[in-house]
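Could someone model 2-acetamido-2-deoxy-beta-D-glucopyranose with this protein?
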Amino acid sequence: MYSKTKFIHIFTLVFALTIQTICSFEYKHHNNEELNQLLQDIHHKCPSITRLYELSEKSVNGWPLTVIEISTNPGEHELLKPEFKYVANMHGNEVLGRELLLRLADYLCDKYRNNNVYVQNLVNNTRIHLLPSLNPDGWELATANLDQNHGSDWLLGRSNLNGIDINRDFPDLDMVAFRHGTKDDFLNTLIYHKMQPETRAAVVWLLSNPFVLSANLHGGALVANYPFDETPDGSMNTYTASADDTTFRHLARTYATNHKRMSQIGTACEQDEDFGKQGGITNGASWYSVAGGMQDFNYLATNTFEITLELGCDKYPPESKLAKEWEDNKQALLEFINQAHIGAKGLVRDENGMPVDNAIIRVQNITDGVNQIINHDISTTKNGEYWRLLTPGLYKIMAAKFGYVPEVKTVMIEPRNTTATQATNVHFVLRTLFE
Ligand SMILES: *[C@@H]1O[C@H](CO)[C@@H](O)[C@H](O)[C@H]1NC(C)=O
Ligand SMILES: *[C@@H]1O[C@H](CO)[C@@H](O)[C@H](O)[C@H]1NC(C)=O
Ligand SMILES: [Zn+2]
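Reply:
Sure, complex below.
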């Protein structure tokens, strides 16, 4: 009898401990210290698939801008494996995304350890970077000024500590693009534009990693917003399509339809903006024009496709709502990451098998007899890699670089049949033009 009781006790204890480790996530608003501690804890729970690193600069008040990377080879880019990022809380008083990314990191870690096939496929095939807060100072300001009903001010804490809105502080490449500026015009805009430390840190990060797909997480509305964010003529709101409008609409729709409420009619925050009627998505500039935003900077300065997620009417939801918000956003957050695998990817090499970097990848849509150049080139990495997000259809893809004979391939992009399906491989070998 005695030994049996003891056995049961030990069993209960072990069981309780296991439950505790697995379900340890606490839904609350993590302050900056707790945020960094939680990321450390997740890293210690899953050391083989996580790594923490900081962006190149700290916030004005000295908080690190900490990223958790989740991948099977932390710290290393693997050939042809797409890189993905989520950025939250760049508006310090829009706090839901920050807690969702902490929860997501913990979830990916736990599910990976428990051999969840979906999460393992996602993490095995994608290098994921999560930045829970790009504006930790603004978060502190917003949090210190919550009223007695836990209500937050609509604007206090939105900007960084110098009073600058980080999402208006990026070099305005839209205007260069709308005027058909040259590469030099782009570079000059980068050089002359003075930036806040948080913005500069983000810019350095974006320019030094081959991110393929990204979203930045906000609050105050419920909608998935896609480029362009800025109108070319300074008007308040005019639909301003990018060359990749179809693909962006697909990406935004993926988030909206996998979210429990975003694509439903009648979920609007303001009377005049029922985004549910548009399936929970909107072109940024057709909603309201924004200059100097991060989303368009991603698209125009790098190979990254970024959308902006407005996660709810309440910018600072009470802690009691966080678990439900996670349930509402979980599938959307996961499926959106999976979109890093749509379209085509491949290597561009020379006839000796050496990588050709900085080659351009240009796409022509020839689906159903249309004959349309998609006026947005992707360039290859130093390993000669490219990723070209595309919706299903028939395309001509060209790889070209000065000094080489361009090569064009026709490729059918099929719809993805499982969530583990990767981009279609299309490789190129370029012959040198001058011997
Ligand atoms: C993911 O990769 C790990 C390590 O290589 C492997 O053990 C696991 O089986 C993979 N999971 C899936 C679903 O392929
Ligand atoms: C290519 O053209 C087809 C037919 O018009 C269209 O359905 C598809 O969305 C286009 N693809 C892209 C990426 O624009
Ligand atoms: Zn915002």
